[in-house]
Specification:
The protein has 24 helices and 16 strands. By secondary structure, it is an alpha/beta fold. The strands form two sheets. An eight-stranded mixed β-sheet has the order 1-8-7-3-4-5-6-2. The chain binds phosphoenolpyruvate (PEP) and magnesium ion.
Length: 617
């Protein structure tokens, strides 16, 4: 232990040695403040944990002809795992500040796309077979070839080209890490509550940081607009990037304070800095506790209207979050997870076990099970050979969702049968994706009733009244034919993600047109209004389950349009509930009328901002 005033011996040391040697604390070392770019707000008090990135070492490897299929399977599995990781991150989006959502969502969609039936994966699969390369080597070679082609493009936007090439390499790195089961070694031993200090953090690293574990991140390199900054904001980890002189100044074990909004890291913080940081932390904790308390309170407007707030579920692992968030059931159970990571579709019994577990976990709360929405960007790699994939230049306009299921009715029958077999255990509803004409709902219902009759003949006990069969309204065609579809369906779930994409002819995964993707475009809102009114006229349940539902600022508009049921990412529920509890339905209706008179999306966005600022006051 050093005594006060004792000079620190500073023999020249290697970086590794420096990292491993905690600095002995000094009683009164002067505060050293390093400023950088404030990229993610929040305050942290903790100890520095300095580390450098460990890149997985993957020597080139050739394979024998007999190993080709096994290598391709490894690649498919690594892609599925990577998609899951990115998907998890995407699931957190709804709790982020709007600006971070806007930045991150197209990027993550692009990642997911690259991890689907993309040029990268198709090329790597081909290299495995034709060049007899291991999956890792094939991925790296293909990524380099794509990156080189991007960089060779004639385009003045060099930064944009670099960014796109970087994204391909980033995804390749993730695939290789998953293929080699390489944990993020450098981040593995980070102690709870540490302030991570590093030269550089890639977006992939950031994506794997555990927000509950890491108090803050500070880097020497990096800027406000990079993907790493976006990821850190996405994870809600306070962060300051681009701190010059950071790695030379900070040592493992140093006491530090980080203020991600002000953009500084204070090493050996003074008593004043610590006091201010503690105050900030207390305010943060108060806000969290306030949201936590909401769990037990009803989602009720100030004039006593109840709003149903449900959760969207992508994988069963999210189930515990639903209760914590106070979800009133599952408004959208995406069943694609059941079809992932396997060579064949799940059979009826496989599906029964999965649905039973979820339905039982939800007790009496509703569980809306959507049948497989295969196709478009949701193509599931492992099943590419067994399920008909949409072909042609516009897969999103091809054999997707219910269209594919009606073409392969045995898949729909197995899924209906499994759902019907668990329907007596809780409060189940069945939802059809990608409906465009009423006849598709009628055809699905015919199959549904036929399956029910067969099950009854087999001696299965089904509820006397079959669970309601609803339609997703997620294409402009379905929205404009909503009055006719309402005669065939028992309820509507409006999928604003696809509705915006199909209405505006903007692929959400396409970064170059991401600025045109806007659910507040009057065309999207008018289609929603038409569908909502068609349902309300028939007193038919209608909800929104697209991302819009999880944005607290859009709640006044959605309630004003007549909606009383919203389904969203579970983590978004507390903030949405908070918004609901501050609203008056007449105000919302007036506001919605005003919005619906507008023709300019920009003006609508401004009105939404103005209304939410008014509510905050
Ligand atoms: C939607 O399109 O809004 C929707 C909820 O479905 P998914 O996001 O699964 O396509
Ligand atoms: Mg959809």
């Amino acid at each position: 232990m050093k005594t006060e005033g004792q000079a620190r011996p500073e023999p020249p040391r290697g970086a590794e040695e420096r990292r491993k040697t905690p600095r002995a604390p000094k009683a009164a070392e002067a505060e050293k403040r390093l400023t950088g770019i404030p990229v993610s707000p929040g305050i942290a008090i903790g100890q520095v944990y300095d580390t450098t990135e460990a890149t997985p070492e993957t020597p080139r490897r050739s394979i024998a002809e007999a190993e080709v299929e096994a290598e391709r399977t490894r690649l498919s599995e690594a892609a599925a795992l990577s998609r899951k990781q990115v998907g998890k991150l995407k699931a957190r989006l709804a709790i982020l500040p709007e600006e971070a959502q806007e930045e991150l969502e197209p990027l993550l969609d692009a990642y997911i796309l690259m991890l689907g039936n993309s040029r990268l994966l198709r090329g790597a699969r081909k290299r495995i077979g034709e060049e007899l390369l291991s999956a890792e080597t094939a991925v790296q070679d293909e990524a380099e070839a794509i990156a080189a082609a991007i960089l060779a493009t004639k385009d003045d936007d060099k930064a944009g080209l670099n960014r796109r090439a970087g994204e391909v390499r980033e995804i390749a790195r993730r695939l290789v890490r998953n293929l080699t089961a390489t944990p993020f070694r450098s981040l593995k031993g980070v102690p709870q509550g540490a302030i991570l200090v590093t030269e550089e953090l890639t977006p992939a690293d950031a994506a794997l940081l555990e927000p509950g574990r890491i108090a803050a991140v500070c880097t020497e390199e990096g800027g406000a607009d990079g993907h790493t900054a976006i990821m850190l904001r996405a994870l809600g980890i306070p962060a300051v990037l681009g701190c010059h002189g950071l790695t030379a100044a900070a040592r493992r074990g140093d006491a530090a304070v980080v203020d991600g909004a002000a953009g500084f890291l204070a090493l050996h913080p003074s008593a004043e800095t610590l006091a201010a940081a503690r105050e900030g932390l207390a305010a943060q904790a108060k806000e969290r506790a306030r949201l936590g308390k909401l769990r037990r309170l009803p989602a009720e407007t100030t004039d006593g209207q109840l709003v149903e707030l449900q959760a969207n579920l992508e994988i069963p692992a999210e189930l515990p979050l639903l209760d914590q968030a106070g979800a009133q059931g599952i408004g959208l159970l995406r069943t694609e997870f059941l079809f992932m990571n396997r060579p064949d579709p799940p059979d009826e019994d496989d599906q029964v076990s999965a649905y039973r577990m979820i339905v039982e976990a939800m007790g009496h709360d509703p569980v809306t099970i959507r049948v497989l929405d295969w196709g478009g960007e949701k193509e599931i790699e492992g099943l590419a050979d067994t399920l008909p994939a949409p072909v042609g230049p516009n897969p999103a306009l091809g054999l997707r969702g219910l269209r594919m299921l009606l073409k392969r009715p045995e898949l729909l029958e197995a899924q209906f049968a499994a759902i019907l077999r668990v329907s007596g255990l809780g409060n189940v509803r069945v939802l059809l994706p990608m409906v465009t004409v009423p006849a598709e709902v009628a055809a699905a219902r015919e199959i549904y009733e036929r399956v029910a009759r067969r099950l009854r003949r087999r001696g299965e006990s089904l509820p006397e009244k079959l669970p309601p069969l609803g339609a997703m309204i997620e294409t402009p065609g379905a929205a404009l034919a909503a009055d006719a579809i309402a005669l065939e369906a028992d309820f509507f779930a409006i999928g604003t993600n696809d509705l915006a994409m199909y209405t505006l002819a903007v692929d959400r995964a396409e970064i170059d047109v991401a600025h045109l993707y806007d659910p507040l475009h009057p065309a999207v809102l008018r289609l929603m209004q038409f569908a909502i009114e068609a349902a309300l006229r028939l007193r038919m349940p209608v909800s929104v389950c697209g991302e819009m539902a999880g944005n607290p600022k859009l709640v006044p508009l959605l309630l004003g349009l007549g909606l009383r049921s919203l389904s969203m990412n579970a983590s978004a529920i507390p903030r949405v509930k908070q918004a609901v509890r501050g609203l008056d339905i007449d105000d919302c209706a007036r506001f919605a009328r005003r919005v619906m008179e507008q023709s300019d999306p920009q003006r609508i966005a401004e009105l939404v901002e103005e209304f939410s600022r008014r509510e905050e006051r």
